[in-house]
Amino acid sequence: MAVDVRFLGHSAFHISGAGADVLVDPFLTGKPKAAATADEVPADVILITHGHGDHLGDTVAIVELADEISNAGVENVRDPNYGGTEQFDWGWARMVQAFHTNTAPDGTAVGQAAGYVINIGGTTIYHAGDTCLFGDMKLIAQRGDKVDLALVPIGGHYTMDRYDAVTAVELINPQQVIPIHYNTFPPVETDAEAFKQDVQNAGFSEVVIVQPGETHHVR
Ligand code: NI
Ligand code: MN
Hints:
alpha/beta, seven-stranded mixed beta sheet, 19% helix, globular, binds manganese (II) ion
């Protein structure tokens, strides 16, 4: 099954396959290097890892837009917690643990952030969200089919840095990796090419550096 993964910058992705368009963390408006605007991205489902502005982003605008376009209305809001698997026509998405705080748009602290394991048309994608390195990444990734594509933060400061991310890749053992959550703002600047060399020299996985706006075709 062909799955296209379009990087919209930072942690945002437009994943299309099995006849569906899935958005993850659509922070677009006001983002340096934004690759699309809220009215340019189709969405059957939007997966949100947590409420920080650089992830929740344009979710409400996109949903309202979808509501306007389609008389059928938008899909209901679902509220899985860690370990919960949501079934869709195109596959499923499981909410998994991430070690990171969470805040509602009004600034209220509301617990922890999440990651997702997404199965779209038989292709397995692990979006780690915002997180530090933790050992159960291995457990999350070994449950079920081998991870075809891992999306891991490498920017440091708010998440793990590119050095811890190498170990994360070792634990997840995916076919391919796309680094995320770096070079958007000064605190998360890092050397993605060095991360790629470290991972590939260790023989852990193939690293694909995708620029905002580019699409990666998952094998
Ligand atoms: Ni965050
Ligand atoms: Mn973030």
